[in-house]
Amino acid sequence: NPTVPAFAEATGSKSVVVSTPLTGVIHTDQEIGKKDFVVSKTLVHAAPEKVFEVVTDYFNAVRYFTNLTACQVLSEKNSIKHVRFNAKATGLMKLDYVLAIDQSKPLRIEWTRVKGSFKANEGYWDLAPVDSGRSTLVTYAKHVDPGFFAPKMFVHKTLRDTAENIFRDLKRNVEPPQVAV
């Protein structure tokens, strides 16, 4: 597998050069605050606001994201939503967890586990405008501690696979349909 340069980070209104593998997703393992995160990035051909709208539409999340079987906002206080997710993981594993989701920052969504599956589940979405805001460099970063022994390699592969599926679903729901020429 050839190595691919990482995304140039989007800064302000400067142009961004993006080089991606065939799947259109780049994954890196990063240590953030002494925790191992899988940071996944892809380019989505839709405005950041449209991507934000879909990612935070918990009422319709099950329609958008194929890994979810249920999603419900339990409470909202000071721009922190407690949202319960039921999801399918690799194999037959069913997940049930509540996340505290902070949407107070523009084009950034951060979450931490409140209860349920996993000992730790935290991460963020970062939506950087590219191509004058017509496209979005989407970063999805996630740290999970399953709460039982699992090799880091296995946990990270699962997170990468999950990110690939989430990005595929996201693109299907926000990008304009491709018309054959």
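The record above closes out task 2.4. Task 2.5 opens with a second protein, given below.
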Amino acid sequence: PVKFLQNYQKWKSELMATEVGKSQWESYANNKNFILKITVAKKENQGAGTGEYLWNETGELVGATIALGWKLDKGFPSPVYFPVMNSISSFNVPGEISNETLAATKFMHEFGHVNMTKNTNQITFQMQNSLIPDYNKILLTNGYNTKDQRLVDLASKMGGTPVQIWENREYWGEATAMNFLLEKVKTTDY
């Protein structure tokens, strides 16, 4: 929406101010076989999300949507699953790391999700997404017994428990965000 365009342009400029950010952006902007849609929405608030993945008939990822929160330049996620983005909070002294840098770091994290999904087998990715609710339903109804053979079998089929799968996906995002943040802060005194 037009009312979010100015902030989006600031975040994009901050991302493109680094070689890693510019390279990441151009890898999708110059790929005519991939459609990356980027939106800004109130729904995401201070966070962001990636989804609406599209695959072609050979199982190659050819599209995705990154939804940025309208307050992307505010708030720090939990250090447990988002250590890179949360690390900025330690330096959140006025003038050291800007709100635009925080937003661009979150933006880059979402590029990490797209990158990871491009490198994941379509069948595996979709199977994980379809079986995770089944796993969670069983877990909630069996008294949280993770040794339940049904859960063991599902985890084996999915390549991990839902938490392990989610952590892996988030840490991919964090590794991508870290490349951006390291380049951005390499000239600082801290």
